[in-house]
């Protein structure tokens, strides 16, 4: 690689990291804060929470990376244009490929990195996160760690305790169970404990109130009563994996007995093709950025800032890709569009680069913008000429 190519690549990589790391930190922080209840609700240690936070990080890298590349390329090349460096390169007779080649190679490497992250690393981390959360909430006692606070265990089932004691013992239990529409049950007990298996809540010295649909209330006192938690514990302790939690090899050949695959087979095919097509985005975004700011231009040329233009195009492609993925989950007929969108956009940008053409707005749109600008200047009292 030539010295000039190394110089351009070094500046782009530096700006790429400068844009990637802060944005990644912000998004990662928002995702981690959504899981803070793992500590407050389940009593997990701070160390477990940090492990969870670390596993969340790879799940967002592939999403942020292409946009950081757009910022790195457009900012670097725009700065070089403003400093007349691109004009000097053109005046020296250097071909455009001396600017394009290192950045395209870098973008291709990032595309391969995104493919590996989305295909294998990200789903593995998702599985670990789901397993960790399911294990943390498997025990009912950990879910009601806060005293004198109603805690919803599942829809229709609430638990409150007055005091936690050593071991698994508790005092002042209140359990409200309205999961069965045929009756509402409210349990009061002076003492109680979850057995060692976690499948029963044993309450002592209490009463249960049963309210029938017609409004009749029946009160029964008991010395000892076992509230069944077996179904609840098994359900909360078992992580359920969807299409996004599976790696690329599994998506290519799903288990025909997988309940999620049986219910929604299109989700697995849509997720498979989304990951493959999305891995092209860094390369496509790089071509778009080079198309917009890869040549020397006059400072007097009125145009939208290249970074803004490139980000608008990148966001449009990203949102369109997600929308097509949603459509592909309902019908497999939309799957080819997942590839047509990025490959078509990249081919158009590559054609513009190969023919040394610059993107221009349609004539009618340029005339409209010019007319609006003229009217705005007149309303603000800015004329095209002046009198002495």
Automatic annotation (TrEMBL):
<feature type="transmembrane region" description="Helical">
    <location>
        <begin position="304"/>
        <end position="321"/>
    </location>
</feature>
<dbReference type="InterPro" id="IPR030922">
    <property type="entry name" value="LptF"/>
</dbReference>
<feature type="transmembrane region" description="Helical">
    <location>
        <begin position="49"/>
        <end position="71"/>
    </location>
</feature>
<keyword id="KW-1003">Cell membrane</keyword>
<feature type="transmembrane region" description="Helical">
    <location>
        <begin position="276"/>
        <end position="292"/>
    </location>
</feature>
<feature type="transmembrane region" description="Helical">
    <location>
        <begin position="12"/>
        <end position="29"/>
    </location>
</feature>
<keyword id="KW-1133">Transmembrane helix</keyword>
<keyword id="KW-0812">Transmembrane</keyword>
<dbReference type="Pfam" id="PF03739">
    <property type="entry name" value="LptF_LptG"/>
</dbReference>
<protein>
    <submittedName>
        <fullName>LPS export ABC transporter permease LptF</fullName>
    </submittedName>
</protein>
<feature type="transmembrane region" description="Helical">
    <location>
        <begin position="103"/>
        <end position="121"/>
    </location>
</feature>
<feature type="transmembrane region" description="Helical">
    <location>
        <begin position="333"/>
        <end position="354"/>
    </location>
</feature>
<dbReference type="InterPro" id="IPR005495">
    <property type="entry name" value="LptG/LptF_permease"/>
</dbReference>
<keyword id="KW-0472">Membrane</keyword>
